[in-house]
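Chapter review: from sequence to fold.
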Amino acid sequence: MAMKGKLALVTGGAGFVGSHLVEALVDRGARVRVLDNFDRGRMAYLDAAKEKGEVEVIKGDVRNRETVRKAVKGSDYVFHEAAVCLNKSIKFPEEAIDVNIWGTTNAVLAAKEENVEKFVFASSASVYGNPRSIPMTEEHGFYPETAYCVSKIAGEHLLKIYSQDLPYVAFRYFNIYGPRQPTDAFYTSVILSFIRRYEAKETPVIHGDGTQTMDFVHVRDVVQANMLAIEKDASREVFNVCSGAETSVNDIIHYLNEIYGRDVKPKYEPGVQVYVKRRLGSYSKIQEMLGFYPSVSLKDGLYEVVKDYRKNPKMY
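The token string follows.
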């Protein structure tokens, strides 16, 4: 499926992952439409893409069915990234259910009505909860811990209901990081917290003993997965998007020490509540079916974030 000249809608397109998707789509010759309420997204995130290609921006809410219909109209592809994040869902579970379930319902129904060529849904590895087996494959059971997790499971099931009329791929994103990453992400914000302290020559603080692990996947690899979803024929499938590498919070300090050329010893303080203490995904299925392979090592990715943070501090 060629992108050139196609119209792609990215909901949440002014956000972290969404804005990187917009850039990649423009680079491939697509016309791009963004639907975003700018709760977390920023217009500045789209500046680079708008300089290179055709980007239409609609300020609106996915909970408004008519707004979504208008945004989807004429689209060849829909990338549904808009969602209330995990952090906010803990404080405002009703809003998470409202946006993430009803908003997704609106997007799915509009895409079905418009006969889009493919619908790509941003699900989450949070649907797995605490792992019962490692690495987590797509066959791992659902053990949701928050309204956010429940809403992502619901989104996947909505797609199954309408799959006869709507080709789709759902991605269970693991711990995404990279340039423009949000400061309020429940798990990955630890990266920015540490970088800010390194830049200020302050001691980084670890809550707990630092042994909690994550599977960090660079946003460029997340974009790679989304592009492959369009380029390949796979449909009605769910895939992990991960690096397949388990990294502890202590490991991040180790990498940042190498990047900054220091030997910083973190300060350990009493832990805060975390819902998942260990995370490691398998990318075997997405590699086999889509040809995905994580291309950015964590050390290289962290160095990229450090450089971008210094160059564009207002983006964080």
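Two observations follow directly from the output. The domain at 7-177+217-244+280-295 is CATH 3.40.50.720 (Rossmann fold). The radius of gyration is 19 Å.
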